[in-house]
Specification:
This protein is mainly α. The protein is about 55% helix and about 5% strand. A three-stranded antiparallel sheet has the order 1-2-3.
Length: about 140
């Protein structure tokens, strides 16, 4: 429900409100599209010949990439963040009734139909840093809900 005066009041009275939370309130589909961009991950995948088509198959292909980003401490967290957002995008687009939810601090998570929330960014960061859990494994566990 869009109540403009309430949005304005909330912005004035909740200084901790993340700009992403505000964007999600105004346009959830547009915000989900922003989360799906994952530019750095898509560039690294393309360089390796992997097509990211928002399927579980593409997650398995990402799991097989040589982790060259681990050699660059500045790139690693960005690839991990993108991997988590891409994982979340695949889950939301392929698991019925799964949806994005933003915590008050702006952290995006995926809510499964069971009510369980998956911290996809944390999973992506773990994957980028250590290779585990594999993105395809997190997807498979989420798809079972």
């Amino acid at each position: 429900m869009n109540i403009p005066f309430l949005d304005n009041w909330r912005k004035k009275h909740d200084p901790g409100l993340s700009p992403l939370v505000s964007a999600f309130d105004r346009d959830p589909e547009g915000a989900a599209e922003l989360l799906a961009e994952c530019e750095l991950l898509r560039a690294r995948a393309q360089e390796a010949g992997v097509v990211l088509d928002d399927t579980a198959r593409s997650l398995a292909a990402l799991d097989q990439l040589p982790p060259r980003w681990r050699d660059d401490p500045e790139e690693l967290p960005w690839v991990g963040n993108d991997a988590g957002l891409y994982l979340g995008t695949v889950i939301v687009r392929t698991v019925p009734r799964a949806s994005w939810r933003l915590r008050p601090d702006g952290q995006p998570v995926v809510r499964l139909p069971s009510g369980r929330e998956v911290n996809v960014v944390e999973a992506g960061l773990d994957w980028a840093a250590t290779g585990a859990p594999e993105l395809s494994q997190v997807y498979a566990e989420s798809a079972e809900y």
